[in-house]
Design a protein that fits this description.
By secondary structure, this protein is mainly alpha-helical. The chain contains eight helices and two strands; from the N terminus they run ααααααββαα. The mean pLDDT is 87.
Amino acid sequence: MDIEKKELIQEAVKRLKGHQRREYIAQISLDYFHGNSRKTEREMGWGRACIQKGLREKATGIRCIDNYRASGRKRTEDQLPTLSEDIRLLADRQTQADPSMKSGSLTYTRITAKAMREALIKEKGYNEEVLPCEVTLGNISNYA
């Protein structure tokens, strides 16, 4: 396959998504590489699993449904629904108005993420293995 044709095919693949992309990749594999996913992967740089899925979809006529929302790690707030409220309660005791501000509307909290983690374990009964790292707790407390 010449370089110009390869670049044209690569550009077309970049514009497609989901099953349409897999279908196009499978057709290229069949047309130029005799349906060999390893050859297609080596020559075109596409993932072999994607090529194989496209070839299976093309052979059976059954389209795989992509469930991207179900993949990946869930947010800490979703895994521990009471965590944000517990952080807010612990932080409220350590929150005070900035003394240099005339209006008094600006507040800050005098508790570190490390101290917050220790307080969650001691006072709220969280298990140490279940709690996220200090950085994540600091991020949550900034938005809580």
